[in-house]
Amino acid sequence: METKWTENRKMSAFQNNSTIANITTSARLPHRSTQIEEVVKMVTFWIIIIVGVIGNSLVITVVKMFRSMRTTTNYLLVNVAAADITTLLFTAILYLIMTINSPIPSGALLSFLCKFIYTNTISIVTLLVTALTLTLLAFERYHALVKPLIASRRVTTDNIAYFITGIWLIAITLVTPLFATLDYDSDKHHCSHGDANYEMMIYIDCLIVILTLVPFTVIAFCYSQIIYGMYFNNTICGSKSERGDTRKETKEKRRLVTLLILLTVVFFVAFIPYGILLILKVSKVNHRYVFLQYASQYLTLLNCSVNPLIYTFQSSSYRRAFKVIMKKMLCRDATYELSELIEMRTRTSVRSV
């Protein structure tokens, strides 16, 4: 009985939209992995999880530790980091549960596990949070650089908490129908949406549109306007800019825009296979696309882990802040890096990363 439950519980992860889908259930796929392949996948999985949790935790720590890093842009990047950590931790919990032959739960506990753990529906919430945050980042940069005089539409450190709270509330509200209908099906021995299963698949398709088409349209417009102003008509960072920007400030602005565009591109590239896989589920043909399954699994997790590395390579502020933290952890003097970080923030008027 427990063996059957374990197998069905594992299978339900893919049937109900888990970001890692069948990472632990490759035996159910047309392709049977060898023991070496399973070990490689397991090691890769845990490396991504550990690196992602540590890296995103450092991002949050940096913004909390250094007053010079407390900008609207960085607060939004912290929100992305929080969403990424949530995805990684819930995925790790799901992985551990699937690899342990635990006793069969029942009643309210089983229902709770179906809604929040076994199906990893939390990942859809965090994906929505990331997409909405990246959209707000583009909107914030657009109004800071292209429309700086329209103060009423600016995102500031005073109102950023309301925006972040709103993002999470919108994401949770959009996914609530999935939480509400998910439960354990005693006849089929796995978690499902019951009689509303087909309707929920259609609803998921709508979420994918919200997660891709709408944010992409807004982001594309905002960054196209920024790029046009920066590189074509010189209204942003031009040599005769009305803001009187120094060369260093101009460089910081361009690097910031490059960083945010890179983050957005990485997110959408990582999400595309996952979105396609969910759409294919409606046609019940997903079992034919083993490569797409694994691509969606690991790209989604990798996206949650790679952002801190992007900050390190693209942002001098984060690079210096990370050095300060590492030197303090190793009990080494970090006065030079700390003074550089403060000086860089003082000499630039741009709300940089």
From TrEMBL:
The keyword Membrane applies. It comes from the Eukaryota. This is G-protein coupled receptors family 1 profile domain-containing protein. It is found in: Membrane. One of its GO terms (molecular function) is G protein-coupled receptor activity. The chain crosses the membrane at residues 43-63, 75-97, 117-139, 160-180, 200-223, 256-279, 291-313. PROSITE patterns: G_PROTEIN_RECEP_F1_1 (PS00237), G_PROTEIN_RECEP_F1_2 (PS50262). One of its GO terms (cellular component) is membrane. Keywords: G-protein coupled receptor, Membrane, Receptor, Transducer, Transmembrane, Transmembrane helix. Belongs to the G-protein coupled receptor 1 family. Pfam families: 7tm_1. Residues 55-311 form the G-protein coupled receptors family 1 profile domain. InterPro entries: GPCR_Rhodpsn, GPCR_Rhodpsn_7TM. It is a multi-pass membrane protein. Signal peptide: none annotated.
